[in-house]
Design goal:
The chain contains 14 helices and 16 strands. β13 and β14 form a beta hairpin.
Length: about 450
């Protein structure tokens, strides 16, 4: 699982500012729903979730995305007044892309034929958007199919004007054809480290996943931005996701030789191995063992055990394992309730938020055009108007249509085998830093 988790996280993360959104099941003027679009019948509104689940390489890789989209549909259908959206029941059609390019393309075609939109898309090999863009609506026009994805690995998907990634791409799409390109990275936790340990005082090792150039590039964008805050590299290491603990022996030896007080290994499996090797060698003096959203996982705690005590973990959504945050933010509580406490995971949190963004677009389309004005065209129209989006406070606010990331986060530390908030400490809140987003120029895509 490690190498794909690295790819995902590298690519990879209050109400939405859409004016006058109606309640979830709202109708207008007593209008009776009827079949108006592919996937929109008189009684149902069908959405597709395409996710890599059944495969031999990384079994159940994005099952959490499937579970979350099904959960958000159950949540929407539970609302008072008949529930659903636009007076219709929300129905989820799941297409397993199976970490296979051909199966992924076929899933896009099926979604085009059966569903009004794609929600929570989590397919590693969605490398072409042609099937999505050429998708015909009920009139036969090639309108395309609205897509609110979690995972976008290909540049054409990240920057397609028909996709609205819930985890905005690192590249600023306006610069994608320039050399170099401009990239954005959230460095909120870096400011917390500066505040706690002193600016320019941290230095250490960075371990990058070497399974693919895109994964390595993606992680370098975010970790390189932390260096811009003064967390100097004593040495970089490139290791594959299949590396065993012994591969981390020279990493820890380097930390000893350099007196490193900072360590970062991108994915949670790599972080566990690094921490176990550090414990084996008796490494002391490290102030910050650092990890992003990839380590916010129950399996990180269970597999790391006492060796991952003190680990810092940073997310751009509220800590959903924490009952205090579930209580403080209703949407976080609903995510856990309707997805299932045993099924919630970080990937799922993004897919759930995609469902909420889709809800907001549909409700805005109802207000503008009535319950029978919900079409692919009007959903595109309303998604394009969503600027500040935070899934009712569950997520640090992003610019959805503008593909801009947040300058906010929640930083936690593992204490006594649990994730504990350290910045900010109050449940239901994020810490936002004025300079929490760093932009930097890199020529990752190369000259054509």
């Amino acid at each position: 699982k490690g190498k794909f988790a690295t790819l995902v996280i590298g690519a990879l993360v209050a109400a939405v500012a859409v004016m006058g959104i109606l309640p979830a099941g709202a109708q207008s003027s007593g209008e009776k729903p009827k079949a108006v679009e592919v996937g929109v019948t008189a009684s149902e509104i069908h959405i597709a979730v395409i996710a890599d689940v059944d495969n031999a390489i990384a079994p159940n890789l994005f099952k959490a995305s499937k579970d979350a989209v099904e959960g958000v549909a159950a949540y929407l259908n539970s609302k008072a007044g008949g529930g659903g959206l636009a007076g219709r029941k929300v129905v989820v059609d799941f297409y397993d892309s199976k970490l296979n390019p051909t199966t992924t393309a076929n899933a896009e075609i099926q979604a085009c034929e059966n569903d009004v939109a794609m929600v929570g898309t989590s397919a590693v090999f969605l490398t072409s958007v042609d099937n999505m863009r050429n998708c015909k609506d009920s009139t036969g026009a090639p309108t395309g199919i609205p897509d609110v994805p979690f995972l976008t690995t290909a540049l054409v998907h990240q920057c397609s004007d028909q996709s609205f990634p819930i985890s905005p791409p690192q590249v600023l799409c306006a610069t994608k054809d320039q050399h170099p390109q401009t990239f954005q990275a959230n460095v909120a936790r870096g400011y917390y480290y500066d505040q706690k340990y002193g600016k320019g005082k941290l230095h250490g090792i960075y371990v990058f996943g070497s399974d693919s150039k895109s994964a390595r590039d993606a992680s370098f964008v975010s970790l390189g931005a932390l260096r811009d805050l003064g967390i100097k590299s004593d040495k970089d290491f490139d290791l594959p996701g299949s590396a065993n603990q012994s591969a981390y022996t020279p990493v820890v030896q380097q930390m000893k030789e350099s007196g490193s007080n900072y360590g970062q290994a991108t994915s949670y499996p790599a972080t566990v191995l690094l921490r176990k090797e550090a414990a084996l060698q008796g490494l002391t003096g490290v102030k910050v063992w650092d990890c992003g959203v990839g380590c916010y996982d129950r399996n990180f705690l269970s597999s790391g055990g006492s060796d991952v005590e003190g680990q810092y973990v940073d997310t751009q959504f509220l800590p959903f394992y924490d009952k205090a945050d579930q209580k403080a933010n209703a949407m976080t509580g609903n995510f856990v309730k309707y997805t299932g406490s045993d099924s919630v995971a970080s990937f799922g949190a993004y897919a759930w938020a995609a469902g909420i963004a889709f809800r907001d677009a549909v409700n805005a389309a109802v207000q503008a055009h009535g319950v029978n004005g919900v079409t692919r065209k009007t959903i595109f129209e309303q998604l394009g108007k969503i600027k500040k989006f935070d899934a009712e406070g569950m997520f640090a606010p992003i610019d959805l249509s503008g593909r801009r990331i947040s300058n906010c986060s929640v930083t936690m530390q593992v204490k006594n085998g649990k994730f504990v908030r350290v910045s900010p400490t109050k449940a239901g809140t994020f810490k936002c830093w004025p300079q929490g987003v760093v932009t930097r120029k890199l020529d990752i895509f190369g000259a054509s």
